[in-house]
Design goal:
The complex is a heterodimer. Chain A is mainly β. In chain A, 14% of the residues lie in helices and 37% in strands. In chain A, helix 2 runs parallel beside helix 4. The longest helix of chain A is centred in the N-terminal third of the chain and has 23 residues. Chain B is mainly alpha-helical. Chain B has 11 helices and 3 strands. In chain B, helix 2 runs antiparallel to helix 3. Chain B is elongated. The chains are: A mainly beta, B mainly alpha. Chains A and B meet through helix 1, strand 1, strand 6, strand 7 and helix 4 of A and helix 5, helix 6, helix 7, helix 8 and helix 9 of B. Strand 1 of chain A pairs parallel with strand 3 of chain B.
């Protein structure tokens, strides 16, 4: 048989063999396929956002607001280079028929994508048409095309802008959800006592959720963002000690959670939202306990001579928990299985206090605060697999602590004294694009909602 | 332990009432029989429907569709079914793309200050907003009627399976080849994987050499999830290969483009340290 093969056949066989494993399903399924690659880095996408056109004067303010919020969201997304509006073509672009591709792909603008649209507004409704087009591919249809309708209020228009930005970010980033519609819970003492507050991810719309007039600390969103667990000091029968409190976003109030003896603090949610882990001294020493979401069926997890606190559940696996313990003398990070077994010290190449562990949403990176002997608290990120540690707030003097990840895994919110007072800041997870979110009073302990 | 105790106690104390149990048993048997009968009828009816789905789905080789139609009665409310109805819609009527403003939407009034972010986020978008693709550009696959037979993208590829030139893309007409028609989607896949690829877990010497390359293949389904992940070509270095595997581990992309008809896209992806972009 082999003898019969001529040269061409051999070539064909070789070709088939070399491609066979790769193209296996392409051939079998008759479905389309593509081939692409990545290397050492990847460019940000260049996106232009044309001024959204008001269909009438009444829509002018909201057009400007919508345009601005979308631009801010995209610029802050971490994956998009917002093309400076000063470079845009002068002709209005408010609907697809007006899109002149060359004008936007021109080297002067060099937009990869352009977002545009228009607003119609009556006294009862605003309707926003919004599109995103691939500038380099005139034959393709819109990447995003939406109509948003709702009450013609600033608040609603802002929400729509966040949604549109999220849609763009999600589409262009390959499915990683945007987080422009997320919120940040935090503790503020601007009214005199430390209360639970919440704000939009960009610092807009700050308002208090509680008015307990005692002390509230360390809020943590449930995975479905319907509840916030936090530490509270609500007096009960004349006794005041730290307890776990539960705020229901749906009900708009604090709902019941079991009270325990001793001091109870630092709640953390299991990724499936069915359990709470927290530190409690109900049996004397501060140890980690796990309960259901109403505080029922408490089960002790740690047994040590030192105290244990600040647990954080790996959100991806649900199996590993990182927590803080001073069992060696000073606070350090430990890992354990969610059932309390297999406790290990996370070793770092220097001395100092390590606190505030926070898993990234994909469970691959851990952020924490570290006060090394030669400085103040800074935020570090570590990939447990490689044990590589990076200081992402390398400034001198100020305290940067309590990191919390945005659901997109690209942003971190934290508290910092870099502006003189203790305030909430956010940044990209590499430390770039820091942005101050709170300005008045003292604000601390931010926690990013998970959706 | 306590669990085990209960049943024992119960049996012990209930022996008198065995007779009553009999009644229940019979009743239960009858019920089960009725249920089985009902399921059988249902399946049969579904079977009747199957061919109709097949007819719509494709005048040419629609083997897949028929199979799904026949099996769908029992195990899975498959995504393909959703896919199909979606693809039919835009061709049928050019502008009424979203036939399903499912819940009549209430534009959440901003009266509640706190509830909004949980409730409002999904609601206004799904019901209120419409996807405009159909309105604006007349789709290039101008099939016209609701019977979106032949020019589906998958069909375009079938005739040229072996002859593919190089590793780039196979040409198809109508739907066009995926990469040129949906360049943004290809970019987005690349972006997502790049972000998920922790190069710091690769041996430093391998990284420094900037030569290692491995190739993974997988398939993206309509909802953006992936299946059939395989290492098509190893780099020869375990840490490099593992970093690539991990980059795809649990990854999920955005849903395939709305106007794309196929049930999935096969992807060949190079992790290549010699590329600077």
């Amino acid at each position: 048989m082999l003898v019969k093969f001529n040269q061409f056949s051999w070539l064909a066989v070789a070709l088939v063999l070399s491609l066979a494993p790769i193209r296996a399903h392409a051939q079998n399924t008759r479905d389309p396929w593509f081939h692409t690659a990545t290397g050492l880095g990847i460019d940000k996408v260049r996106v232009a956002v044309a001024d959204f056109g008001p269909r009438a004067d009444s829509a002018k303010t909201h057009s400007e607001q919508f345009t601005q919020v979308v631009r801010d969201d995209l610029a802050f997304s971490g994956i998009i280079d917002l093309v400076s509006p000063s470079l845009y073509p002068t002709e209005a672009l408010t609907q697809p028929s007006e899109l002149k591709y060359p004008a936007w792909s021109d080297p002067g603008v060099k937009a990869g994508y352009v977002a545009f649209g228009n607003l119609t507004e009556t006294s009862s409704e605003v309707a926003i048409q919004a599109w995103l087009y691939d500038v380099n591919n005139p034959s393709s249809q819109s990447v995003v095309g939406k109509i948003y309708r709702g009450a013609p209020t600033d608040d609603q228009v802002r929400k729509f802008a966040h949604m549109f930005a999220d849609e763009i970010i999600s589409r262009l980033s390959g499915g990683t959800p945007g987080m422009a519609s997320t919120q940040i819970a935090f503790i503020s003492s601007r009214t005199g006592t430390k209360e639970l507050w919440v704000m939009d991810y960009d610092g807009a719309n700050q308002h208090a959720l509680t008015n307990l007039r005692t002390i509230s600390l360390m809020p943590r969103w449930s995975p479905d963002s319907s509840r916030i667990a936090f530490t509270c000091y609500q007096p009960y029968n004349g006794v005041v000690n730290a307890q776990i409190c539960m705020y229901s976003v749906d009900a708009g109030k604090v709902i019941s959670f079991a009270r325990f003896k001793g001091s109870n603090s630092a709640p953390a949610w299991s990724p499936d939202g069915t359990q709470i882990m927290f530190s409690s001294s109900m049996q004397g020493n501060p140890e980690l306990y796990v309960t259901d979401t109403a505080g029922g069926k408490p089960k002790r997890l740690t047994f040590s001579t030192g105290g244990s606190t600040s647990p954080t559940w790996n959100p991806k696996t649900g199996q590993t928990v990182i927590f803080v313990s001073d069992r060696g003398g000073i606070p350090k990070l430990f890992s354990m299985n969610a059932d309390g077994t297999n406790v290990n010290l996370l070793d770092v190449p220097d001395k100092g206090y390590l606190i505030d562990p926070a898993w990234s949403p994909n469970g691959q990176v851990l952020a924490f605060s570290w006060r090394r002997p030669d400085g103040n608290y800074d935020i570090y990120v570590m990939e447990p697999t490689s044990q590589r540690i990076i200081n992402i707030t390398p400034d001198s003097g100020s305290r940067n602590e309590r990191p919390s990840w945005a659901p997109d895994g690209r942003h971190i919110v934290f508290e910092s004294t870099r502006g003189g007072t203790r305030q909430i800041w956010s940044m990209l997870a590499d430390g770039s694009q820091p942005r101050q979110l709170t300005l008045t009073g003292h604000n601390e302990s931010p926690n990013w909602s998970s959706r | 332990m306590s669990y085990a105790a209960h049943p024992v106690e119960r049996f012990a104390s209930i022996t008198d009432e065995d007779l009553k149990l009999k009644k229940f048993l019979i009743f239960s048997l009858v019920l089960h029989f009725a249920l089985v009968l009902w399921i059988a009828v249902f399946v049969y009816l579904q079977g009747l429907r199957g061919p109709q789905w097949g007819d719509i789905g494709g005048t040419d080789g629609s083997v897949n569709v028929k199979l799904v139609g026949a099996a769908s009665g029992i195990p899975m409310p498959t995504t393909p079914a959703v896919t199909e109805s979606k693809t039919i819609e835009p061709t049928k009527s050019l502008y009424k793309e979203d036939p399903a403003p499912k819940p009549v939407p209430e534009p959440k009034t901003p009266t509640e200050k706190i509830a909004p972010f949980k409730e409002i986020k999904p609601k206004p978008v799904t019901p209120k907003s419409k996807i405009d693709e159909s309105k604006v550009p007349p789709p290039d696959n101008a099939v016209g009627t609701g019977r979106s037979g032949a020019p589906d993208i998958p069909t375009g590829y079938a005739p040229t399976p072996g002859g593919g030139s190089g590793p780039v893309t196979v040409k198809g007409q109508g739907g066009g080849d995926f990469a040129s028609r949906y360049g943004w989607y290809v970019e987005s896949v690349k972006r997502n994987i790049s972000q998920n690829w922790l190069q710091s877990t690769i041996d430093p010497s391998v990284r420094a050499a900037r030569q290692a390359k491995c190739v993974m293949s997988f398939r993206i389904l309509r909802d953006g999830s992936i299946t059939n992940v395989q290492m098509a070509q190893t780099s020869g270095n375990l840490s490099m290969d593992n970093s690539a595997r991990r980059a795809l581990d649990g990854i999920r992309f955005g849903p395939l483009p709305n106007d794309f008809n196929g049930s999935g896209v096969d992807v060949i992806f190079d992790f290549d340290l010699s590329l600077t972009h």
